[in-house]
């Protein structure tokens, strides 16, 4: 499989293969912990993933065979946030979480090792998680002076249930790939040497399905949980579809032609 580099970055790899974009955190020295710069680069890559019609599925992973992502880089954790090259404290991983949730394309976490802390939340917010047998899962916040009470808690609880989510956060234990599978935290577990093949297979299968149908399902599943922001996203898709109808064109044409619109000929199904 020949991945083509889409853009060069200092902290991530951004590659493409037959409709699939792969974003790899490239800091194996730190178990793929992220700094604000790493996160900014992932956010930048995600903008391209959203805009580029040749990209149908997005995959997140970590470099090497030890870690998917170990969360925020504790070396740069400082007063009010994590400090990047501009010297400003940020929690910009939260922006990436929102991008993953709202991009109208499936996002797969390819969990190739530790998914810990903010790195665990990163896989949780992806649409699907496929893990290697050596993957290990867990939150550490209350142990290391942090917490994610946003998607990292509420969406986690939607995935594994309230009791399990509280256990994961209150005890800060680690869980094996098999335990993660048993609690519905991941979709599938495979040997490490089969991980990418499996992810590509799943992506290819989804690319045979109707992209608009997948888009509406993702927006609907989000909307049920995301309140007004979820409805806003779902409604945007409805407006997009409405703009594809003659009825909507009639409204715009009538305005431009300075006449009364005639909507009488459009169907009103029961
Ligand atoms: O909670 C949030 C947020 C909440 C709201 C809004 C934004 C948030 C943003 C981020 C976060 C967080 O992510 S808080 C949680 C931060 N992460 C952690 O607490 C995990 C820390 N790491 C570990 O527990 C372990 O390293 C590990 C279970 C992932 C792997 O263990 P292992 O295989 O035994 O390796 P280890 O020797 O520990 O690590 C290898 C090297 O990587 C070490 O460096 P060295 O001693 O060789 O110099 C280690 O320090 C480094 N490393 C690992 N994880 C991190 C790290 N360095 C910096 N930051 C890390 N997260």
Task: Give an overview of the whole structure.
The chain is of the alpha/beta class and 270 residues long. 45% of the residues lie in helices and 20% in strands. The protein contains ten helices and 14 strands. Helix 3 packs across helix 5 (151-160). The longest helix is centred in the C-terminal third of the chain and has 32 residues, at 211-242. It is globular. Bound molecules: 1-hydroxy-2-naphthoyl-CoA. The site of 1-hydroxy-2-naphthoyl-CoA has 23 residues, from helix 2, strand 10 and helix 4. It is an enzyme of class 4 (lyase). Keywords: Lyase, Menaquinone biosynthesis.
List keywords for this structure.
alpha/beta, seven-stranded mixed β-sheet, 270 residues, four-stranded mixed β-sheet, globular, binds 1-hydroxy-2-naphthoyl-CoA
Question: Into which percent range does the helicity of residues fall?
Answer: 40-55%
Please tally the helical runs, counting DSSP H or I stretches of 4 or more residues. 10
Beta strand count? 14
Largest sheet: 7 strands, mixed
- Give me the strand/helix succession: EEEHEEEEEHEEHEEHHHEHEHHH
């Amino acid at each position: 499989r020949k991945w083509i580099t889409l853009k060069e970055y200092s902290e991530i790899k951004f590659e493409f293969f037959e409709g699939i974009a792969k974003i790899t955190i490239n800091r194996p020295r730190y178990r793929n912990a992220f700094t604000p710069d790493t996160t900014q680069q992932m956010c930048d890559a995600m903008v391209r993933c959203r805009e580029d019609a040749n990209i149908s599925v997005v995959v997140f992973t970590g470099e090497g065979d030890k870690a998917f992502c170990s969360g925020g880089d504790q070396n740069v954790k400082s007063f009010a946030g994590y400090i990047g090259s501009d010297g400003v404290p940020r929690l910009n991983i939260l922006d990436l979480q929102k991008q993953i949730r709202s991009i109208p394309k499936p996002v797969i976490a390819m969990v190739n090792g530790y998914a810990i802390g903010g790195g665990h939340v990163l896989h949780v917010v992806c649409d699907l998680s496929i893990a290697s047998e050596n993957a290990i899962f867990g939150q550490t916040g209350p142990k290391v002076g942090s917490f994610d009470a946003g998607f990292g808690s509420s969406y986690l609880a939607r995935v594994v249930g309230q009791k399990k989510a509280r256990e994961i956060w209150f005890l800060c234990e680690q869980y094996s790939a098999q335990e993660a599978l048993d609690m519905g935290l991941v979709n599938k577990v495979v040997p490490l040497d089969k991980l990418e093949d499996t992810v590509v297979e799943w992506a290819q299968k989804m690319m045979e399905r109707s992209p608009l149908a997948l888009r509406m399902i993702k927006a609907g599943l989000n909307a049920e949980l995301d309140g007004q922001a979820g409805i806003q996203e779902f409604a945007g898709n409805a407006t997009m579809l409405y703009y594809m109808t003659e009825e909507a064109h009639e409204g715009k044409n009538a305005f431009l032609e300075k006449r009364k619109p005639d909507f009488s000929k459009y169907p009103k199904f029961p």
